Amino acid sequence: MDSMYKIAHDISEIDWWRLADIMARAPLFERKPFDLAQAFRNSDAVVFAHADGVLVGAARALSDGVYYATIYDVAVAPEHQGCGVGRQMVSALLSKLPVERVFLTSVFGKEGFYERFGFLAQTNAMGRYAEPARGQALASGVLTAVRTTSSLGVTKTSN
Prior knowledge:
alpha+beta, Aminopeptidase, 2 domains, five-stranded mixed β-sheet, 7 strands, globular
């Protein structure tokens, strides 16, 4: 079923309203089309998937070109999920990221998908979110409070 999808890197003809709709339904986040356009234009690597000329998925990454890259916003329209388009997009994006380490944030339940590409859970990552995203991330378990123990054996928790 992979052959029905065309993978492209050209940003010039993207329907940002359609991409915002895909991201909301994927479900990822509610994003404004103009903000999505800016985010993708400012990215180092982008990939888009089309079926019969219609946008059905997208992903992007930032990179220093040597050591690190981070993949963001891997989104596939729900009616195309499970058909191989996500695999094609991530493979195409990774081929544009010849670096030592590639990071990503996964939607809960999709970790197995990324494991197929060699991704593993990371225990030393932290996130800094602005409100209201911080409160939402704490409530959903995406972020957890840092627990530190002093040399006196006192445990401190910070939010």
